[in-house]
Write a structure and sequence with these properties.
By secondary structure, the chain is mostly helical. It is 73% helix and 0% strand. The chain folds into 2 domains: 36 residues, no CATH class; 31 residues.
């Protein structure tokens, strides 16, 4: 298991890489300000997709992002 400090640093690195420094900080501020239940949010995240559609999207993502 990785240490909390490492997970936090890697998370910040990803946010900064994808959003830039200003928007990464803004994202964190938005999350902290609003009551946010990740589990409840995730329950409905993919409800309008079939398993096949999700699989296709995941495969496309991997292909387009060299993963």
């Amino acid at each position: 298991m990785r240490a909390d400090a490492i997970i936090k640093q890697e998370g910040m690195d990803v946010l900064i890489e994808k959003l830039g420094k200003v928007d990464a900080e803004r994202f964190i501020s938005l999350i902290i300000r609003e009551p946010f239940d990740y589990t409840k949010w995730q329950e409905n995240l993919f409800e309008n997709f079939t398993v096949k559609e999700l699989s296709e999207k995941a495969m496309d993502y991997v292909k387009n992002n060299n993963i």
